[in-house]
Amino acid sequence: MYILKIITFVLVIIGALNWGLVGAFNIDLVQLIFGEMTVLSRIVYILVGISAVIFAILEYKHLIDDKSNKTDLY
Fold first, then answer.
1. Buried-most residue among 22, 25, 60, 65 (CB within 10 A)?
2. Can you tell me the distance from the alpha carbon of 9 to that of 53, in angstroms, rounded to the nearest whole number?
3. How far apart are CA 24 and CA 18, in angstroms?
4. What is the pLDDT along the chain (74 residues), one digit of tens a residue?
5. How many domains does the chain have?
6. How far apart are the C-alpha atoms of 37 and 50, rounded to whole Å?
């Protein structure tokens, strides 16, 4: 599970940086590297999107587990 979390985190960061470049400078690194909407660029976009969903689910699960493990001191 730890490896999955690291992989999804890295892909989410890559996607966020790419969107930051698109917004700030109108530069899409995925298109520059793989071509405009080629099969490879579409795969990268899909992997980043799926990674974001998986990462959000894993973080939510971690948050819920942390809340249930804490005892109420009051």
1. 22
2. 11
3. 10
4. 899 999 999 999 999 999 999 999 999 999 999 999 899 999 999 999 999 999 999 999 988 888 777 655 44
5. 1
6. 18
